[in-house]
Write a structure and sequence with these properties.
Layout (H helix, E strand, L loop, with lengths): L2 E6 L3 H11 L5 E7 L2 H11 L3 E4 L8 H10 L5 E6 L4 H10 L3 E4 L4 H12 L7 H11 L7 H4 L7 H11 L4 H8 L3 H14 L5 H10 L17
Parallel strand pairs: 1-2, 1-3, 3-4, 4-5
Helix pairs in contact: 2-3, 3-4, 4-6, 6-11, 8-10, 8-11, 9-10
């Protein structure tokens, strides 16, 4: 299966470099380039890429705003944020806008290619640093939102248990061991949770669990990365 990728960056040299990196994988085809967020939204609508490599700081419309517009427009494209900035406002803003992953531009070429395949497969690229940022940011949020909390009523007791473990940073393997089930069963539960709560990926599930008070800051084991 060929993956269609849109490259978005306001630096001409960076776009050329990314195109060169992606050209080594014959399963990836770059369907277009955009130099600002507004062009990114328009090209995503026209070209229907599978994955958008999105810069953050750009003229016209930044990467976070472009991500929000693409997601709100109902595009099936997965957004992979690629930036030089590690500021938690950028990370949190991008993930809340609907991005499926967040990588720094110093990422090795092979890791970037692997990340594209990961998010294109419907998984979220959730590194330990990014997960920690999300959870740390949630500790500074107001009290749990009772309206958001009512969404959890759609889940079965076992699904709530799985969501709680996901939010506490447990990997699928650790959840399987804790619940004495197969890892494939955990993956099925996670997919059902995302579908019922109308969430794009595991990142948004973590955010919702903290927003609703299902998990409190400081609970659970040290966070680790995982995919679903």
């Amino acid at each position: 299966m060929t993956l269609r990728v849109l490259v978005v960056d306001d630096d001409d040299l960076m776009r050329a470099g990314l195109r060169a990196v992606l050209s080594v994988d014959d399963r990836i085809v770059v369907v277009g380039e955009a130099s600002d967020g507004r062009q990114a939204v328009e090209l995503t609508r026209r070209e229907e890429p599978d994955v958008v490599l999105m810069d953050v700081r750009m003229p016209q419309l930044d990467g976070i705003g472009a991500t929000a517009e693409i997601v709100a427009g109902g595009s099936a494209a997965r957004i992979l944020i690629l930036t030089t900035f590690e500021d938690d406002d950028y990370v949190f803003g991008a993930l809340c806008a609907g991005a499926s992953g967040f990588l720094l531009k110093r990422t090795q070429p092979e890791q970037l290619i692997a990340a594209i395949h990961t998010v294109a497969a419907g998984e979220s690229l959730l590194s330990p640093a990014v997960t920690r940022t999300v959870i740390d940011r949630m500790t500074r949020q107001p009290q749990p939102d009772p309206v958001a909390g009512r969404r959890l009523m759609e889940l079965t007791p076992r699904e709530r248990e799985v969501l709680e473990s996901v939010a506490r940073g447990r990997t699928n393997g650790e959840i399987a061991e804790l619940l004495s089930v197969e890892e494939s069963t955990v993956k099925t539960h996670v997919k059902r949770i995302l579908a019922k709560l109308r969430l794009r990926d595991r990142v948004q599930a973590v955010i919702l669990a903290y927003e609703t008070g299902l998990v409190r800051p400081g609970d659970g084991p040290r966070v680790r990365g995982d995919t679903i």
